[in-house]
Amino acid sequence: MKHTSLGEWLLYGAICAYLLLIYLLPSQAWLGFTINALIVTILSVAWNLLGGFGGQMSFGHAALFGTGAYVTAILQVKLGVNPWLAAGLAVVAATLVAGFIGALSFRYGLRGSYFALVTLAFAEVLRILASSFAFTGGGQGILVPYKAGLANFQFADRITTYTLVLVMVAVAMLITVAVQRSRFGAYLIAIRENEEAAKALGIDTFRTKVLAMMLSGAIGGAAGVAYLQTYLFIDAPIAYGSTMSIEALLGPIIGGAGTIWGPVVGTLSLHLLGEGAKHLVSGAPGLNLVLYGVLLLVILRYLPDGIVGFARGIGRTGQAAAVSVKEAQ
Amino acid sequence: MSHNDSKSFTLSRRNLLKAGAATAFAGTIAAPTVLRAQAATIKVGVLEPLTGNLAYNGTQARAGAQFAIDAINAAGGIKSMGGAKLEAVVADAQSRPDVAAAAVDTLAQAGVVAFIGCQASALGLASSQAAARYNLAQVFDVGTAEQVVERGLKNVFRFTPGVNKCTSTALDNLKLLNQNAGNVVKTAAIVYEDGPFGSNMAKLLNERLPQIGIQVVESIGHPTPQRDFTNIVLRLKAAKPDMIIPSNYINEYTLFAMGLRQQRLEAKAIYSILGGAASNIKFVREHNEAAQYVMDCNHWYDPRKPESQALAKTAAAAKLDMTYDIMVAYACIQLIADSLERSASNDREKMIEALSTSTYSGSIMPYGPTKFVNGNNEAAQPVNTQIRGEKIELVFPKEYATAEAVFPIPARG
Fold first, then answer.
1. Is residue A26 less than 8 Å (CB to CB) from chain B?
2. Same domain membership, residue B394 and residue B269
3. Residues 79-138, chain A: which have Cβ within 8 Å of B?
4. pLDDT tens digits for A61-86?
5. The CATH number of the domain where B113 resides is what?
6. First and final C-alpha spacing in chain B
7. SS3 (DSSP) at A291
């Protein structure tokens, strides 16, 4: 069993303190910023389940995010379905899309960079399709009319939106914990470490990977729903563009792929870094992105195990370190 | 350090403290007087895509807004508010709708009375929806999608024309030009970028051109970016259209126009609606031969107005190309200043009221008195421009024209 080090306690404590501080701060700007960061966090948690635990590096998680957002939008705007029901159906749709992409890719044994390219291609195909058909709003996208109310899944009070998104992040993390502690999670990690060996031990690798993809799809779809209900607008470049796919994987990689807190720590840190850089060089737009990029490179260079991996090494007790070494052996 | 030095330092420090205390005291007494004498500052938001793929348009628009604010402040500020000065609060939409929406929080928190933005419909749709929560007015500089004004949002004010108005005006003008030239143009080819802007325009033109007696013989889409237009130009050479309608962004437009010249493809007209480079002086300057006689129907200012001429000089002094982004952003700030003048208040609700009832006609744009219906300025109109020599001339409507339209294009050999 792993012991949580002092560094980890401090890191998670700081994250929780920041998230609680939002309730006390009257700043709408920070509230809006954190809501946005948390929506991306949900998608990062989805990616981490497949990429971090399962070792299947997807470059097209926007396909799942976009499907969640588009299906909710189409159902409620074009077909008049109740937004809550539409949200549920959107999650199902994203799960099915993920299952389809996963089944098709894994059926033909695609791994590593080939799997990454195929997922990227799926997202691109969906982007072009979404910008071509009238029922997806074509190039104009779909705009959800602003009608605040619980029944409409829209909240005039932004703190309620924040709470909802925060709960979604917590649920996504709990799902990850449940997966990690389950037999299914063990199979998934085994596949990540050595797929051939896992197969030799009798693990149905195809089934495990497709299931992981579907679970990831459900969470990614939920992120799309949260995005749509927050910003009330979706178009093809946002939904299926590469920006979302990159954001989905950056957080876990920076935070610590294959850890429970990695995507949360990574995504929030990256967004805070971006915002900090913006404030630091507010007079020169674009310079913040340069600074952001440089800092990102520094993190990647000096923290190969992500921020969580770095924190794990701080204040580690002798016993914990010994256990860890034993685990490693 | 010598003893004397130390002494003099102590003395001067004491003196400094004394002076500081005296100043603080005097400041306390005099502060109300100073506050009364100094007019308050009114914050106006400028939400533009300063980075990302729309960065060029965004930075130009930001400059235009700042030029307007400087001009208004230099002319005495908002007189009904005791000469209050305008102050720009700039936010970067990063060419992303979610960032644009999030930036509205920053603007609202900074206390802006209204804001202008965002050079693209997708950005404006998201930002205005976010601004509705704060009852904060957004004056659209460019937001041609009709969805912008179809949502019933009370805080939306699109000052410039939408795509329907631009298309109908462009086709009416084209019909008139063609009739005057003896209907020489009978066929057209559309070359469009396959994104939202180009594909929607191509669809609209395919429906509407036959109604004015022009048959579409080719409709060719291409992605953005696209760097080689040779095949497209060769296809056009085979189709032999009388008129070519490019509907794409600045780089592709420029490369396509160069391709037409390189392949010596002669057309009777090159006609654009909201064309990417057709009203851009950079295109005229850098690819002068290819740019000749290209006609566009787009946002443009009234070049005859003294304020327009002053703006052109300011832009030139700042070494900026005079593009429509600068013009529309400038005009939007003028509109906000006029509304502030009438409402004499920093209150957001009153700003929305003042904009709703605006009949302003003093902007640099060739518009009549403003009339907002569901947030759409019914008085807004695009104009036809044509590249002639080193200049972009306004050729339609006649009352604003600086040159006669040349239609069809004379044979260039």
1. no
2. yes
3. 131-132, 138
4. 999 999 999 999 999 999 999 999 99
5. 3.40.50.2300
6. 85
7. helix
